[in-house]
Amino acid sequence: MEQLIKTIVQPLVDFPDDVRITVNESENRVVYKLAVHPQDVGKVIGKQGSVAKAIRTIVYSAASSHHMKKTYVDIID
Known about the structure:
The chain is of the alpha+beta class. The chain contains 3 helices and 3 strands.
């Protein structure tokens, strides 16, 4: 799942080497925390959150077949 998120996010940003993903997993959920360069936060979120919503939709769809846990994607600014 981390590779999927990187594959989606890296072409969107100006600093692809600064894309970092950390995973926090508990019994019933998995949280992917996405951190990007401060200048790229707006590009990842998009107007009114449209890009972030699209990223989350893709990850949730892929994770539903991969994990049997609730999946979240948090964008850290």
